[in-house]
Every structure is written in structure tokens, then in C-alpha cells.
Amino acid sequence: MWTSIDAFQHLAKNEIDALVEAPVLITILVGAADGDIDREERKWTERLLHARTYNNPKELNEFYRVVMEDFWNKVEDHLKRLPAGAEARSEAISKHLAELNPILAKLDASLASDLYHGFIGLATETAKASGGFLRMGAISAAESRWVGLPMIDPIVHRNDEAGAESDES
To answer: pTM here?
Structure first.
């Protein structure tokens, strides 16, 4: 099982579950912000998540494999449990996603940054999936409120530690 990945060893099961659940919630938050998740949003989300099962560092490949397992059934299950109205549903999801902040803070900075940027990418691609011409200008006003995932603290990782030290002097 993917919990054997070293990067996640120190997390509690409920914290790991929250990370795995995040792409489901992000898909609902952005894809259903203007009503329902349409066919194009489903197709693009699935393509993006599938690509992430082989196009990432090893830890994230396995993470996204688990995320993809029965993904649309997870989405449907959450939709049944969440408020029916788009605004109330979005607020509930936003509060839930905000709970990722202390979990992400426990991870290696590089891994946390990769997850954060992956979540932002998922939100952006889901929002662009329907509408517009060739997916350009396709983000609705309802989606634009959530696409930057304002409830999750931005995580920027500097690969060049020496550069960071010289910036401070």
C-alpha cells in the first residue's frame, strides 16, 4: 500500500486520507462551482490525474495512483453527503481543504510544494475544461473564486538553499 512511502510515514491515517481526498474535493469545488460537473470537466480531470500517476517523482506517482482508484465513485459519494446548493457546498469544501495546511506543513518542503502546485494545477485545469474557445477564457466567475484554492496556504520551495542565504545577506 502507498502508506509505505517514506515521505508519508510520519502522518496519521486520517492525515493521509485527507491528502488523498483533496483532489476529489478540489474537483467538486471547482467543477461544480457553477452547478454540476460536466462531461468535459470530468474528461480533463481524469486525463490530468492519470498523467500524474507516471509523470511525477516516485512518491507522487503512487499517491496519484491511489487518488485515481475509484475516483468518480468517491466524487459521487461526496456529492451525496455535501450540501446540495453550490454556495453552501463550496463553503463546506473550503473549510475541509483548509485543514490540509497543518498536514502539508508536516511534509518535506519539496513534497509539500509539489502537492500544493499539483492541487492548484488540478483546480485550474478543471476550471478551464468546459466553455470558451479551445478552453481559453473558460473559467466562469463562480469557478474563478476557488481556482486559486485560497484556503490552502501557498507553498513555495526553494531548491537553491545557497541562493536563499545570499539573498538574506
So the answer is: 0.84
